[in-house]
TrEMBL record:
Cofactor(s) the protein needs: Zn(2+)
Pfam families according to UniProt: Lactamase_B
InterPro entries named in the record: MBL_superfamily_lactonases, Metallo-B-lactamas, RibonucZ/Hydroxyglut_hydro
PANTHER family: 102 KBASES UNSTABLE REGION: FROM 1 TO 119443, QUORUM-QUENCHING LACTONASE YTNP-RELATED-RELATED
Similarity remark: Belongs to the metallo-beta-lactamase superfamily.
The protein, known as: MBL fold metallo-hydrolase
Single GO MF descriptor: hydrolase activity
Signal peptide: 1-23
Residues in Metallo-beta-lactamase domain copies: 90-303
Domain of life per record: Bacteria
SUPFAM superfamilies reported for this sequence: Metallo-hydrolase/oxidoreductase
Length: 320
C-alpha cells in the first residue's frame, strides 16, 4: 500500500508514532509580559491608518511540495469530487518596522538549504514535504541582507517546520515569540529539523492577559499602541496565533495556517491538517466574520496570497 495515496491514514499513523518518539531541542520558555492593554471600544477605532508600523513587506522564501489534502479539507461537501494530489505551495515571511521598537518578522520563512531539499528530516518527512523549490537569493537571509536593517524578533504563528525553517538563517541574538504552550513539532526520528536548537528562550504570548474585542474575543495588543495584535486561532496547532497589523499602508490580517489558502478562506473550508478540527473550524469562522465586518482589511492566508498581492519581495502599498 502506498501511504501517499491515503493521507488520512498516514496522518493518523504519524500522530500515533509521535507518542513513542523523543521531543528534542525544545527551548526554555518564559511568559511575555505585554504592556498595559488600553481599553478600545471597537475595531473601527483601531484600524484607522496607524503610522507606528511602516515598510510592511512580503518575503517569498521558496516553495514546498505537499498534499492538497493537507492544505484544504477535501472531505468538505463544498469540495465534493476534488481529488488529492501533490502541489507546490509558497512559504512566506512578513517583515515590518515599528517606529519605536525596530523591525520584526512574522514567521521565519525558509533558509538557503531549501535550494537542495531543505532541513526537515525523519521517517515521515517525505510525506509532508516531498520536494522543494528555491532560487538563489530567495532565502530569508538574503531578504534580510537586502533590507539592510537589524531585526529584533520573530513572531511565530505556530511551531511547525515550514514556519520555523528559516531560524538558522537569522541573527542568533534576536528574540522569538509563540503562543502559550504551543507544541514544537520536532520529534526524532520521525520528523525533525532542530530549527530552534540555537534559541535559548522562547517568549510565550498568553492571550488570556489581553483584552476583549468584538468578534475576535480576547486579543493581545503586543506593543500597546494598537499597531499589532496577536489573535488566538487554535485548531491547526494547539496554540496557533494569527496577527493583525495596522500600518501606514493599511490593515492586514495574517491568518497563518488558520487558513492555508485564500480559496479555503473564501469558501469557509479549513485546512486538512489539524490538531483539533472543531477548534479549527471555529477559528476560521471567527476570522471570516471579522473580515466580513471590516472589508477594508486585507486577508493574507498562510500559503496562498489573495488577488492583488504579488509573489516576491513585495512591499505592501496603501494603493492596494
Amino acid at each position: 500500500m502506498k501511504l501517499k495515496r491515503y493521507p488520512q491514514i498516514t496522518f493518523f499513523l504519524a500522530m500515533s508514532l509521535i507518542q513513542f518518539c523523543i521531543a528534542v531541542g525544545n527551548p526554555n520558555r518564559e511568559t511575555f509580559r505585554p504592556p498595559e492593554q488600553k481599553r478600545i471600544r471597537d475595531w473601527q477605532t483601531v484600524i484607522q491608518k496607524n503610522q507606528s508600523i511602516t515598510d510592511l513587506t512580503i518575503f517569498h522564501t521558496g516553495a514546498v511540495e505537499v498534499p492538497l489534502s493537507g492544505m484544504i479539507n477535501l472531505d468538505d461537501p463544498k469540495l465534493k469530487g476534488e481529488k488529492d494530489k501533490r502541489i507546490f505551495v509558497d512559504v512566506y515571511s512578513f517583515w515590518f518596522c515599528h517606529k519605536t521598537h525596530g523591525c520584526f518578522l512574522i514567521d521565519s520563512g525558509l533558509d538557503s538549504s531549501f535550494q537542495k531539499g531543505g532541513n526537515l528530516k525523519g521517517l515521515i518527512s517525505g510525506y509532508y514535504i516531498s520536494n522543494t523549490k528555491q532560487n538563489p537569493g530567495q532565502d530569508i537571509t538574503s531578504h534580510l541582507n537586502r533590507k539592510g536593517k537589524p531585526i529584533q524578533a520573530v513572531f511565530f504563528t505556530h511551531l511547525h517546520g515550514d514556519h520555523t525553517a528559516g531560524v538558522s538563517g537569522l541573527p542568533k541574538e534576536i528574540e522569538f515569540y509563540a503562543g502559550a504552550k504551543e507544541e514544537y513539532i520536532n520529534y526524532w526520528p520521525i520528523y525533525y529539523g532542530g530549527h530552534l536548537d540555537t534559541v535559548k528562550h522562547l517568549k510565550e504570548i498568553d492571550c488570556s492577559q489581553g483584552m476583549e474585542m468584538p468578534i475576535l474575543g480576547i486579543v493581545i495588543d503586543v506593543f500597546g499602541d494598537g499597531s499589532l495584535f496577536a489573535i488566538p486561532t487554535p485548531g491547526h496547532s494547539n496554540s496557533h496565533l494569527s496577527y493583525l497589523v495596522v500600518s501606514d499602508a493599511g490593515t492586514y490580517l495574517f491568518t497563518g495556517d488558520a487558513s492555508h489558502t485564500y480559496r479555503g478562506f473564501q469558501l469557509g473550508v479549513e485546512s486538512g491538517w489539524q490538531d483539533n478540527r472543531k477548534q479549527a473550524k471555529e477559528s476560521l469562522e471567527k476570522l471570516r466574520n471579522f473580515a466580513a465586518a471590516n472589508p477594508q482589511i486585507k486577508v493574507i492566508p498562510g500559503h496562498e496570497l489573495p488577488p492583488g498581492v504579488s509573489v516576491g519581495e513585495q512591499k505592501f502599498s496603501a494603493k492596494r
